[in-house]
Amino acid sequence: xxxxxxxxxxxxxxxxxxxxxxxxxxxxxxxxxxxxxxxxxxxxxxxxxxxxxxxxxxxxxxxxxxxxxxxxxxxxxxxxxxxxxxxxxxxxxxxxxxxxxxxxxxxxxxxxxxxxxxxxxxxxxxxxxxxxxxxxxxxxxxxxxxxxxxxxxxxxxxxxxxxxxxxxxxxxxxxxxxxxxxxxxxxxxxxxxxxxxxxxxxxxxxxxxxxxxxxxxxxxxxxxxxxxxxxxxxxxxxxxxxxxxxxxxxxxxxxxxxxxxxxxxxxxxxxxxxxxxxxxxxxxxxxxxxxxxxxxxxxxxxxxxxxxxxxxxxxxxxxxxxxxxxxxxxxxxxxxxxxxxxxxxxxxxxxxxxxxxxxxxxxxxx
Length: 366
Description:
By secondary structure, this protein is an alpha+beta fold. It has helices at 8-21, 26-32, 77-85, 89-102, 137-146, 151-159, 225-234, 249-258, 265-268, 280-292, 296-299, 306-320, 340-365; strands at residues 38-41, 44-50, 57-59, 64-66, 110-114, 119-123, 163-165, 172-177, 183-189, 197-199, 209-211, 218-222, 240-242, 271-274, 302-303. The termini are far apart.
C-alpha cells in the first residue's frame, strides 16, 4: 500500500479547498454523481429521501445525510462518498475535490434550502437574490463614502448590471457573466454594521467577476470584486477580472485559459498583470499559474509595480481638478504597498495631509 505525503503547501491548498467545499450540497453529489432520485418528505420540507435507498435521509438545513433515522452523526460530502463507494477517506476526498474543481453549476441539478421559508428549491444554475425595486442609494453611499470608491465606477457597474442591491437584506451583489452574457457568478457583500461575504447558490466560481473595457489590450487579475473596485477607483479605464478570493484564483485563471476562445475580449488581450496582497499564499498561487500556464500571456504575467500604482493615483488626482495644487511621487514616498485597499487608504491619508498643508500655507500668505 502506497502512502502519499503532502507538503506544507499542498496541505494548505487542501485546507483552502475544503473551506469552499463546505458550501457544496450533499444532495447535489447524490443526484449529479450517483444519479439518485431525491424527493421531499411530506412532514418536513428540509428533509429529502432517496427513492433507490430509502434508508438515506438528506437534511438540507444541516447539509448532512443520515443512513437511517436512528443515526446520530450525519455525513458531509466526503463522508458520503466514502460510505457510498466503500473507499478510503483519502480517495473520497480526491473524488469530491476533483468534482468541485470541474463542476459547472449551469449544467447541474442544485438543491437550495431556504431558512426563512423552510423549503427546498431545486434548480439549475445560479439563483440570484431579488433586486431592489427602488434606488440603490444605500449601497452607493457605502461604496463612495464608507469605502471611498469612485462614484463614476459604481454608476457604470450598476448600469451594466454587474452590481446591484438585494431587495430584502440590502446587500451588495456582484454579478459575473459567462460567454453568453448570462449571469453565472455572484457574491453578496454585507454593507451594514457587520460586513460579510457569501457566494450565491449555483454560482460558477471559476467565472469570477469582470469589468472589461472595449478592445482592451491589458487586463489586471485581482483576488476579489472589492479589491477590483479599489483598483478601478484609481484607474477607471482599467479592465479587471476578479476571483472570489485567493483560494479560487488559480481555477479562475485556468478556466479563462481553457475557454479563451469563447470570450471575445480575450482575443484583444496582449498583456496580463496582477495585483494581489504581498503574502506567501499569493506568491504560491502566482508561481503555480506560471508553472502550469499554456497561454504565454499568463505565463509571462507580472505584478503591477507599486510605483506605477502611485503614478496612476497621482495622475487621476491631478486630472480630477478638485485640488488647487499639483502633487508628485515624492510626496508619497512613505507609502508602501501591502494590498490594494490599504495602499489607497494610505495614499488618501497623505493627500489629506497635503491638502491641509496647502490650506495652511494659503492662510499664511493672506
